[in-house]
Design a protein that fits this description.
Strand order of the largest sheet: 3-2-1-4-5-7-6
Strand content: 15-25%
Order of helices and strands: HHEHEHEEHEHEHHE
Number of domains: 1
Number of strands: 7
Distance between the termini: 29 Å
Number of helices: 8
CATH superfamily: Vaccinia Virus protein VP39
Helix content: 25-40%
């Protein structure tokens, strides 16, 4: 579902994505640095699920905001989520089409503004947002989206968050979302967070020497640029 009067921030998001390279090979899993970042995040997510008592995912109702080309939903299917319990909402038609081509038809995908999406209140065990809010530069729209996501979460569920915390001086189309801002966006949530992901420029440089250096450099917390968080609703 899409509003007849879209928020100006959504038009800005579309323009920012249009300025990006259509296919940036730095983020291909054929790139060792990208693969290691992906695998690290995957391991951290599995540990997080264990901490919050999610030992099986086949009964979890999950919706992803900004589901992109379906990569995260595909990952969750491999972890054991049931396809008919997964949903994704994507703003950009080309990314939505790519997701539809790669995911089972029983995964529910919709195109448009998540703020006005047809998701029932308190219907989701998990609402996933992965590198979404760093692309939203308007604070008011960020809060509207966070409030919408929070309404979808069942008591006992939560928001699963992955995003970077520091600004990228080479990319004015994104900005970091520090932990303090996450807490402000979800003031009624209990936030468990951990720093993950070796800074991508460093990761690319050191893995070009040898992939094992990713793990070595990633032992330094200050070199990790992203946060993986569980924002629980009581």
């Amino acid at each position: 579902m899409q509003s007849s009067n879209p928020d100006p921030e959504l038009e800005s998001v579309r323009e920012r994505y249009d300025r990006r390279v259509a296919r940036d090979l730095r983020y291909s899993l054929l790139n060792p640095a990208a693969l290691l970042m992906y695998q690290e995040r995957q391991r951290a997510m599995i540990r997080l699920f264990a901490r919050i008592g999610l030992t099986e995912l086949n009964c979890v109702e999950l919706v992803e905001v900004g589901s992109g080309d379906g990569g995260n939903l595909l990952e969750l299917l491999r972890m054991g989520c049931a396809p008919d319990r997964l949903s994704g909402i994507e703003l950009l038609p080309e990314r939505h089409a790519a997701a539809r081509a790669r995911l089972p038809t029983s995964v529910r995908l919709s195109l448009g503004d998540a703020v006005v999406a047809s998701v029932e209140e308190a219907s989701c065990d998990i609402v996933l947002a992965s590198t979404v809010f760093s692309s939203l530069l308007d604070n008011t729209f960020q809060q509207r989206l966070a409030d919408t996501m929070w309404r979808w979460v069942k008591p006992g569920g939560g928001v699963l968050w992955y995003d970077f915390t520091v600004d990228n001086p080479r990319n004015a189309d994104v900005r970091g979302v520090p932990l303090k801002r996450i807490r402000a966006l979800f003031p009624n949530g209990r936030v468990q967070a951990q720093r993950v992901t070796l800074a991508p420029p460093i990761a690319r440089r050191v893995t070009a020497v040898h992939p094992s250096l990713y793990t070595l450099f990633n032992t330094v917390p200050l070199l990790r640029t992203h946060v993986l968080a569980w924002i629980a609703k009581d």
